[in-house]
Amino acid sequence: MKQIEVSIMGQSYLLGCPDGGEPQLRQAVSHVDREMCAIRDAGKLKARERIAVLAALNLAFELASMPAIKPTAATEDGAPAQGEPQPSAEHLDTLISRLDAALSGDGHLL
Questions:
Q1: Which GO terms describe its biological process (predicted)?
Q2: With contact defined as beta carbons under 8 Å apart, do 5 and 22 qualify?
């Protein structure tokens, strides 16, 4: 696993990234950054922690609102035969834990 440096709302974070996952992680970072900046730029909130919570809620709502995709048949090696797999609850919990760890390193949340 390699580490990549990213910036969210002007704050740098060093994130662990699985091999081959950098494009997806950078896309996720970009999505989170856009969401947080939009909330900040609306001018109602200044605290990074509150902005992060609202952004997380907005993104979770967006994810929950997406139509469910039926699982596809798997190939012999267990990989999906077509389309992209849906994230499992365990995978989402792991991502949330990683976000919590990244945000906990920022001593200037309030």
A1: division septum assembly; FtsZ-dependent cytokinesis; septin ring assembly
A2: no
Query: Along the 110 residues of the chain, how does pLDDT read in single tens digits?
Result: 899 999 999 999 999 998 899 999 999 999 999 999 999 999 878 899 999 999 999 888 888 888 876 555 555 555 555 555 666 777 777 777 777 666 665 544 43
Return the domain boundaries, the chain: 2-65
What number of helices (H) and strands (E) belong to the chain? 3, 2
CA distances from 71 to 63, 67, 68, 74, 88 (A): 17, 13, 9, 9, 12
Asked if 34 and 13 touch (Cβ cutoff 8 Å), the reply is no
Residue 62 exposed, middle or buried by CB count within 10 Å (0-12, 13-18, 19+): exposed
**Sign of torsion over alpha carbons 42, 48, 53, 57:** positive
Q: What is the CA radius of gyration of the chain?
A: 16
What DSSP string runs through 66-101? Answer: SPP-PPPPB-TTS-BSSS-PPPPHHHHHHHHHHHHH
Q: What is the pTM of this model?
A: 0.60
